[in-house]
C-alpha cells in the first residue's frame, strides 16, 4: 500500500463505521453467528494456512526467530479452532453495547438531556502472532459498531488472511461494506496508520509490554492497553497457608507467560520461617526458578538467587518468581503500589480487616482476595472475550470487553430554548430532574 492508499483505506473505514454504528442488534447477532459457523466450515483452509505459517516460523526459529512459547500460541488445534468459533458465538449473544441510555435528565420543562453510548468509529488493533486474538478483536469491534484495521504478527499472515476472509464473507452477504475490516500487512503500513489521528479513533495493542510502549510512544491516537504485568500475591500473617500455596502455584505455573501470572510473592515475616521453605520447594518441584530478597535467602537459600533492589519491577513472563519478606500488610501495600504495574494483585488472608484494607488501598485494575491472579480475564469475568487488559485510569480499566469499545455522547432535545432565557434577573431556573430510573439507581 502506498501512503495515499493508506489515507484512502482509513478514510473509507471511517465512512463504513457510520454504517456499523446504526446496525441493529439482531443484525449484528446474526452476522456473528454466521462468522462462527464460517470458522468451523472453513476449518480445512484455516488449518492449511496455519500449517504453512508454522512451518515458516519453525524454520525461522531454527535460525534466530520465534520462541517456542510464541510458536505454541500461534499453532492451531481442533480445540483452539472450536474455541475461536465459540468465542464469536458468545460475543454474538451479548447485549448490544450501542445505544444504551446512560443518563436522562430534564433540565427544564421540555428540555431533555440524554447520555447515550456510541461506538468510537475506527479502531486500529495491533496483535502479535495469535490467531485467537485476531478473531476475538474482530468480533468485539464489530459487535460494538466499530470499523477495524488490524495488524497481526507477520508469523501468522496466512492464517490471518483466511480468518479475516470468513468475517468479510459474512459482511458481504449482509451488505456490510468491505471497508469495515482492513488487514494491515506490514510494519511500514502500521507506522503510517499511527499518524492518522484524523481517521483512527483508538489503538488497541495486544501483546508484549514492548509492543504497547512502542505504540504509545509513536502515536497521538488514544491507546488502550497495559505496559507491564507485574502482579503480586501478599500472604498475610492470618492466611490459610494451604490455600495460599494453591493460589500461588496456580497464579505462576498454570500459564506463566500471561500478563496476569504472578511475578512477586510477598510474605509476612511472622509466618515466613514456616511458609517460605515449603513454598520454595513446591515451586521448584513445579519447575519454577525462585529468586528472593536477603531475608528470604536467610530463611531458605538452596537454589534461590538474590533479587537486587532495582529488580522488583520485573515481568518475568516465564517460570521464574521473586519472593520478598515484608513486615506488615502496610509494607506489602507500599511495595505493590511502588513496584507493581497496576494490573492485578491479590491478598491471601482470613483477616477480613486486612483484606478490606488491601482491597481499598492497592491502586490496581484488579485487586483480589484469596484467589489466583489468573482470574483477571475478560472471559472469566463473563465478557465473552476481551480486547485486552487496561491498566490506565481513563475510559476503561482491567479486562476490556464490549463496554470498553464504546464511548458516549449527549443529546439535548428542546422547544426553541435559548441560553439567554437562563441569564439575568428574570432568568428561568433549571430543574435538573433525573428520570425516575436514574433516581432509583442513585
Structure characterization notes:
The protein is of the alpha/beta class. The chain has three domains: 3-217, Aldehyde Dehydrogenase, Chain A, domain 1 (3-Layer(aba) Sandwich); 231-375, Aldehyde Dehydrogenase, Chain A, domain 2, CATH 3.40.309.10; 415-441, no CATH class. The chain is built from 15 helices and 17 strands. It has helices at 3-21, 25-41, 43-63, 68-74, 78-92, 131-143, 157-173, 187-193, 209-217, 241-253, 269-285, 294-299, 329-339, 352-361, 436-441; strands at residues 101-108, 111-119, 122-127, 147-151, 181-184, 202-206, 231-235, 262-268, 289-292, 304-306, 320-326, 344-348, 366-369, 388-390, 398-400, 406-413, 433-434. The strands form four sheets. Strands 10-9-11-8-7-12-13 form a seven-stranded parallel sheet. A four-stranded antiparallel sheet has the order 16-2-1-17. A four-stranded parallel sheet has the order 5-4-3-6, sandwiched between helices. Strand 12 (344-348), helix 14 and strand 13 form a beta-alpha-beta unit. Helix 2 (25-41) crosses helix 7 (157-173), helix 3 runs antiparallel to helix 7 (157-173) and helix 6 (131-143) packs parallel to helix 7 (157-173). The termini are far apart.
In short:
The chain is of the alpha/beta class and 442 residues long.
Q: How does the SSE layout of this entry go?
A:
Elements: H1 3-21, H2 25-41, H3 43-63, H4 68-74, H5 78-92, E1 101-108, E2 111-119, E3 122-127, H6 131-143, E4 147-151, H7 157-173, E5 181-184, H8 187-193, E6 202-206, H9 209-217, E7 231-235, H10 241-253, E8 262-268, H11 269-285, E9 289-292, H12 294-299, E10 304-306, E11 320-326, H13 329-339, E12 344-348, H14 352-361, E13 366-369, E14 388-390, E15 398-400, E16 406-413, E17 433-434, H15 436-441
Helix pairs in contact: 2-5, 2-7, 3-7, 5-6, 6-7, 10-11
Amino acid at each position: 500500500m502506498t501512503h495515499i492508499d493508506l489515507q484512502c483505506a482509513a478514510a473509507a473505514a471511517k465512512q463504513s463505521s457510520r454504517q456499523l454504528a446504526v446496525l441493529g442488534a439482531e443484525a449484528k447477532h446474526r452476522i456473528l453467528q454466521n462468522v462462527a459457523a464460517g470458522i468451523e466450515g472453513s476449518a480445512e483452509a484455516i488449518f492449511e494456512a496455519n500449517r504453512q505459517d508454522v512451518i515458516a516460523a519453525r524454520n525461522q526459529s531454527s535460525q534466530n526467530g520465534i520462541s517456542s512459547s510464541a510458536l505454541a500460541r500461534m499453532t492451531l488445534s481442533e480445540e483452539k479452532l472450536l474455541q475461536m468459533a465459540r468465542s464469536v458465538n458468545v460475543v454474538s449473544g451479548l447485549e448490544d453495547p450501542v445505544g444504551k441510555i446512560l443518563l436522562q435528565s430534564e433540565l427544564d420543562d421540555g428540555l431533555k438531556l440524554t447520555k447515550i453510548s456510541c461506538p468510537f468509529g475506527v479502531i486500529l488493533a495491533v496483535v502479535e502472532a495469535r490467531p485467537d486474538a485476531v478473531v476475538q478483536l474482530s468480533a468485539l469491534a464489530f459487535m460494538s459498531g466499530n470499523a477495524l484495521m488490524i495488524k497481526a504478527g507477520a508469523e501468522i499472515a496466512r492464517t490471518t488472511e483466511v480468518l479475516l476472509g470468513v468475517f468479510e464473507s459474512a459482511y458481504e452477504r449482509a451488505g456490510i461494506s468491505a471497508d469495515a475490516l482492513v488487514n494491515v500487512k506490514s510494519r511500514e503500513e502500521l507506522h503510517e496508520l499511527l499518524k492518522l489521528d484524523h481517521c483512527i479513533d483508538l489503538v488497541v495493542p495486544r501483546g508484549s509490554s514492548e509492543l504497547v510502549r512502542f505504540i504509545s510512544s509513536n502515536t497521538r491516537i488514544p491507546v488502550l492497553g497495559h505496559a507491564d504485568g507485574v502482579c503480586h500475591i501478599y500472604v498475610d500473617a492470618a492466611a490459610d497457608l494451604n490455600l495460599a500455596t494453591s493460589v500461588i502455584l496456580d497464579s505462576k505455573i498454570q500459564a506463566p507467560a500471561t500478563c496476569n501470572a504472578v511475578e512477586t510473592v510477598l510474605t509476612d515475616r511472622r509466618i515466613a520461617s514456616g511458609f517460605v521453605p515449603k513454598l520454595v520447594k513446591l515451586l521448584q518441584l513445579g519447575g519454577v526458578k525462585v529468586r528472593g530478597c536477603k531475608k528470604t535467602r536467610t530463611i531458605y537459600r538452596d537454589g534461590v538467587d538474590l533479587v537486587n533492589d532495582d529488580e522488583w519491577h520485573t515481568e518475568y513472563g516465564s517460570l521464574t518468581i521473586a519472593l520478598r519478606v515484608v513486615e506488615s500488610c502496610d509494607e506489602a501495600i507500599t511495595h505493590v503500589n511502588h513496584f507493581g504495574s497496576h494490573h492485578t494483585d491479590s491478598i491471601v488472608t482470613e483477616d477480613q480487616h486486612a483484606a478490606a484494607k488491601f482491597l481499598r488501598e492497592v491502586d490496581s485494575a484488579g485487586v483480589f482476595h484469596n484467589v489466583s491472579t489468573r482470574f483477571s480475564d475478560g472471559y472469566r469475568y463473563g465478557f465473552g472475550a476481551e480486547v485486552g487488559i487496561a491498566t490506565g485510569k481513563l475510559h476503561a480499566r482491567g479486562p476490556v470487553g464490549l463496554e470498553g469499545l464504546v464511548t458516549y455522547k449527549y443529546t439535548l432535545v428542546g422547544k426553541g430554548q435559548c441560553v439567554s432565557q437562563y441569564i439575568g434577573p428574570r432568568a428561568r431556573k433549571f430543574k435538573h430532574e433525573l428520570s425516575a430510573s436514574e433516581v432509583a439507581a442513585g
